[in-house]
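Protocol step 4 of 6: record predicted structures for both targets in the notebook before any analysis. Target 1:
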Amino acid sequence: MNAYETIITPILSEKSTNLRTLRTYVFQVSLRANKHQILDAIKELYNVTPVTCRTIRMKGKPKRLRRESGYTSSWKKAYVTLEKGASISQLDGA
């Protein structure tokens, strides 16, 4: 699995924006990716040195469309903390 398959998209929300002050960035990642693959992909794509990675599996939410009921897709979220003094300038808007 290459870096572009591992990291799907950065998550830009109010909570993730507040976490950037703590050098923590939030990404949607592949369900098959493990923590080591996520750290390697961040290092390759953004040229920064990540320190830790925490992952969460997000369950799909129940949805309804008229009479049909179902669920949205499950996905995986990763919180990546960078070393002191580092930042990802593409996501910080600088």
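Target 2:
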Amino acid sequence: MSLINATVDSAIAIAERRRGKIGAEFYAGRGLVIIERAFLAFKTSSWAVVASGFVEPVFYLLAFGFGLGSLIGGVTDGSGHAVSYAAYIAPALLATSAMNGAIYDSTWNVFFKMHFGRLYQTILATSLGTLDVALGEIGWALLRGLTYAIGFMIVMTPLGLIPSWWGILAIPGAVLIAFGFASVGMGITSYLKNFQQMDMVNFFMLPMFLFSGTFYPLSIYPQWLQYVIESLPLWHAIQMERALTLGVVGWGLLGHVLYFVVMIAGGLFFTTKRLSALFLR
């Protein structure tokens, strides 16, 4: 009982400090509690489901990078320097891995908690606010994206697919990517009501993965289609990770970073407002 009392006292103290501050009705400063709860639930979940998000891009790298790649030549890093086909697609698969980890946690997991577990209704009956929920769930999605990114980098590095020391920044880059997708993904999920609608998530993710410059440059497309693809978040993610791992770093990299900063800010605002409209009426 002493532990429970200490936890309650801590929650009350935090709530008291937040009282009267801007956004106090949305944020209690306790988003870490959501992450802690997710970790406890994760320990009882299937490791195979989690591992599949990491294994899939590794299989793509082996099959396309080293299999099909042995038949492909003339690939450059964007500055005219020749690179292997495996080194060309590896950063794209790294970006995709970060996206997948974030999206699956911020869509399917959130969907079940929202519509079946009724978890958020219970949480928001406590001192926690909707921004706490959003930051906690997105934070957990970031941890998954970070884990996938580190694991994939461990595979890429011994294979000689990271020719530049700039490549170490691909890991925080993957976290930024995961943050952007998780922020928007959770907000979109709050509008979805059934499994058929949830299937639309994969409907958009698969073509974005295939056509965002993952396996070949956009120059093969008509100009109008290039503009469409360049507006997609995965294209920016791939270009950022490719520039870092191959060491082709320039001012254009800031544009990709800014894209995700705006995506994160908009996603957090949108998700918080949506959760407040759903559960705090």
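Step 5 preliminary note on target 2. The CA atoms of residues 197 and 269 lie 23 Å apart. Residues 24-279 form one domain.
Proceed to step 6 after PI sign-off.
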